Amino acid sequence: MVVSHSSILICLVSSSFLILLTWLVLRKGALMGYIGKYVWIVFLCIAVRMLVPVEFRFTISVYSRYVMTRFQNLMNFRFGIGGDRVAVSQIILHIWMAGAMVRFLLQMAKYSMFSYMARKYPAYAGFAGQDVDGIVHDINKEHGRGTAFEIKLVPWMETPAVFGVVRPRILMPAIRYTEDELYYVLKHEMLHYYHHDILVKLLCEIFTSIYWWNPGVYWLKKQVTQVIEFKTDASLASGLDRQGVTEYMMCIVKTLKEKPKVKLGALSSFLGLKQGSLAQRFYFMEDNSWNGKRSHGVLVAVVSVVLLFLSFLFIFEPAYKVSTPRSYDCPTPETSYLVGGDGCFEVYQDGEYIGYVLKITDVLTELKVYRHMEEGANEKFMQKDYGYTWAFLILIFRYAIPGFRNAILYVRGFVCGRSRRR
Known about the structure:
The structure is a single chain. This protein is an alpha/beta fold. Among the domains are: 5-91 and 298-318, no CATH class; 98-282, no CATH class. The protein is 58% helix and 12% strand. It contains 13 helices and twelve strands. It has helices at 5-26, 29-35, 39-51, 67-76, 88-120, 132-142, 179-194, 197-210, 215-237, 242-256, 278-287, 294-313, 373-421, and strands at residues 60-64, 78-81, 84-87, 150-153, 161-163, 169-172, 268-269, 314-318, 336-341, 344-349, 352-357, 369-370. The strands form four sheets. Strands 4-6-5-7 form a four-stranded mixed beta sheet, sandwiched between helices. A hairpin with a 2-residue loop joins strand 2 and strand 3. Helix 3 (39-51) packs parallel to helix 12. The longest helix has 49 residues, at 373-421. It starts with a helix and ends with a helix.
């Protein structure tokens, strides 16, 4: 397996194409109904493609003298910074890593805020003597679970949400639910925990932090949230009669009238979707078609895996004209390497082609042999310039983390102040 500029570019292009294709399919309600729960196979294939930007041995190279050669030259172009020369690809890597680090720290600050609120606010006791603990116990018994849920009252939240991977807490708004409505709300949030939806959303946040600059990833995260709600609604409605399904829909509409004031991020909320998606959400509950047919799942799996394989099958690489051999200094492992095999090896020194040999002589025995020219160039590049990356990360950890810590303390103080005024 080889990681190169070309493999990363093909990874981004092919994964963006898969995301666009998925969007074109899922925006049609009929096709979404046909795929059903097997849409998770599609999401998994997209995630695999985006996380594996490598070139395999079976990959077929398609050489492009104009587009890919110019792209490669641009990535290798070096700017003079502080007496040193830094490549464009290294600058892009710094910006990419800095953006990922900043977004990840923002999400951690948000998670810390919700964790603090979940401990601070009082227990939710319901209205008119509702037995909240009894409802939670009954739902646990229905599913053969013994999970201990903490139900908290958070007045400024306007939609229920579940929080916590290890110690689950359900955050309830100050909405007057009836006994049946409270049962639907709590069961919906508890199903999110049973299905490990909180962990899925946390992984989506990490994935979004890595590809913070890609708009398609944000759309993909919204689609994952939508599918999570479809799955939870279908699971809850499967145990209800038609009247119960209608009551559950009315409970959703009642909660929708209160629009949330905050973005919940990694929390799984009772709404989870925008108002425009309610029609499709209700359709799956009434038609009970979310589970789909096994034959549909096989077709979706075959198409997804074939597209994933095709995205790895071809790669576009730069094509360079081979110049005539010239005189050169004695090659050393620090400056030179060999590319090729089967009795013919090209010699590169300082990234430039200087000739070829048919046999590795004593002078060349200490040089590394690579299968592709880019493989050797990238390794030499990382050996020279990797120190810039570590220096950049040290600066981020030195100055950014204390700033985020102060921001978290400020938010906590602000929340405490609001609570005292109430």
